[in-house]
Specification:
Blueprint lengths: L2 H55 L4 H10 L3 H29 L5 H4 L5 H9 L8 H25 L1
Helix pairs in contact: 1-3, 1-5, 2-3
Length: 160
């Protein structure tokens, strides 16, 4: 086997290790995203439930209360009505996302991330702490070890 064959084998090993390392991060990212999704849903549900309780105590349905807020002449109160509609819509969207995530199996869970709301997925990526946090350092150490072994082998062969 020539030098090119050895080089190709090592490149193949490197890319296989790289692909394996990247693929090993997907379950951890999915787990962290699911935790963030659950936290966002808990908070939104609290807001919507409080609004519903306030609406009921005033003798209104959720829809009627949001319509009254949106129709108000005061820009601040009007914006609160718009914001509440957005909160309800976001709660429904995140609930569907969480249900899709829960229904997906371990290998198809990544497909449930396709419809992930942009801001939540982006924040999860920014704060992502990978399962293998020393992956790059391990690769450098492996490369250094391989290089040292090759240089030692070559020196040993040169003495003969």
């Amino acid at each position: 086997m020539g030098v090119i064959g050895i080089l190709l084998r090592r490149l193949g090993l490197f890319f296989a290790l790289l692909a394996g390392g990247v693929a090993s991060q997907v379950p951890e990212y999915a787990q962290q995203y699911r935790q963030r999704l659950g936290g966002a849903l808990d908070e939104l549900n609290t807001i919507v439930q409080k609004f519903d309780a306030d609406s009921l105590s005033a003798g209104l349905t959720r829809e009627t209360a949001m319509s009254r807020l949106a129709a108000n002449a005061d820009p601040f109160i009007k914006s609160q009505g718009v914001q509440m509609r957005e909160n309800v819509a976001r709660t429904q969207r995140l609930t569907r996302q969480a249900q899709a995530f829960a229904a997906a199996g371990p290998f198809t869970r990544i497909n449930a991330l396709d419809g992930a709301p942009g801001q939540g997925a982006r924040r999860c990526r920014q704060g992502f702490a990978g399962l293998i946090c020393v992956f790059a350092a391990a690769l450098r150490r492996l490369a250094r070890l391989r290089f040292c072994r090759l240089s030692w082998h070559n020196r040993r062969g040169a003495k003969r």
